Amino acid sequence: MNSLPPYTFLLIILSCLISTACLILGALILPLTPVLWTIPGAFLLTVVYHFVLVLLSNAVTDRSKRLFSTLTVGGAYLLTLLWAGVLAISITFAVFLAQGKVQPVRGSPKINPILITMSGFAFFHPFILFTIGVILHKERRQEQYREKWKWKTQTNTSNWR
Fold this sequence. Notes:
The protein has 161 residues and is an all-alpha fold. 72% of the residues lie in helices and 0% in strands. It has 5 helices and no strands. It is elongated.
């Protein structure tokens, strides 16, 4: 874990907890609409991304280009967009349900507190993932700058022969 930037592991744990809460709450309201199928997919991609990130941070002993690759940085931004889509779907469906444009399932309230709670959790998740992406992007740029100004002995010694 020494190769992860400060607070990144805490953000990863928080992201996993929020995505798990969204998955559980989404499973409770899945009979309301089949539109919320995006939640399990987003959860699965988020868990796989965080698993790969933690695995890479444990595999390298020092700051490595693999940990701050385009895949890890871009993955955080793509997950941000995915969870923003989940948020948009859940808020849109909650509004349609409250306005009566979508008929609720028999026995369920017009304003569903589980759907609103899930939307609240989904509201914070894109910000957490975006923060992870910004931190990794910043570290990637620092590593590229260090690599640029690193003394290259192979290039310099061949010129003196």
